[in-house]
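All the exercises in this workshop are built on plain-text protein records. There is nothing in a record beyond a sequence line and a structure line. A learned vocabulary of local backbone shapes supplies the integers on the structure line. The question running through the whole workshop is how a given chain folds. Here is such a record, shown just as it appears in the course material:

***
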Amino acid sequence: MTTYDDRAGLTDLTTAVDRVRRSVESVIEGKPEVVRLSLTVLLAEGHLLIEDVPGVGKTMLSKALARSLDCSVRRIQFTPDLLPSDITGVSIFDQQQRDFEFKPGAIFAQFVIGDEINRASPKTQSALLESMEERQVTVDGVTYELPAPFMVVATQNPVEMEGTYPLPEAQRDRFMARVSIGYPSADAELRMLGVHGGVSPLDDLQPVAHAHDVIKLIETVRQVHVAESVQRYAVELVSATRGHPDLRLGASPRATLHLLRAAKAEAALNGRDYALPDDVQALVVQVLAHRLLPTAQAQLNRRTAEQVVLEILQRTPVPTADGARAAYGSAGRAAPLYGQRPGDRRL
């Protein structure tokens, strides 16, 4: 019989992530899948877009995640009069030094909360493009590196709400995943009244992981192995969106990269040092749907991007374990069975 043991790095990862998860769930009642996705995006070096109606806890989730990590945190309230320089920073002339001095903006933090991002003008929204993709900011021809780790968690209201601007396609494409919190169940809402009815639980929330811990966890996720068959599966899913008759804009190559990174983080959270097609399937809707633009006819037929992605997922053949078995066999160990967790016995 053959057993599969966790590496020490993966054991440390699951332990640390579990501490953060419990910390966030002490504030966000009844939404474990949303909290897990937030941690997946963090470990995959991505950015998270939280979209839902007002009052369901979008900002509370982002604050709880930020306070659970011992990282520098800045919050930006996006309003129609917000300027790009308020985000990136501005150079001010120093009369004594007879030179310009750069004053960093709110983006210079390890954890940036963009509250109601679609209430600012597209000009202001575009100030985030360089920082989200390249982890740097260029002002007056000078480039400034952003601290590591760096993550943007943005909240937005549905575009049907008054006073909102739809995010540009380039902006949406830089978010690794989009999630909707949704209304809580009756039991979760009742527990929320008991917890939030007096004081805010955020007041008692203490950091449970440090910035250098997060960097180590991210490095562990980078080492997760992805077989060529799983990579090809991700490419086929993304490529299918580009020629679908119900879509006028498919997913970009950046979406393929984000899907692969998210799958590696999902595998690590499951205690594996290899990714499976299951990991890709678990995140494909959250990673791809917000990047897609349905055609006018599809909108008339009430076809959503999520429905199109699920249809593509059903039609795309899932790779067999043969490719992964060959890859793992060449490394001198038996290949994992798809769906098998480390420590499970193989007969």
Observations:
- Confidence is low (pLDDT under 50) at residues 1-8, 328-347.
- Residues 42 and 151 are 7 Å apart (CA to CA).
- The radius of gyration is 21 Å.
- DSSP finds 15 helices and 13 strands in the chain.
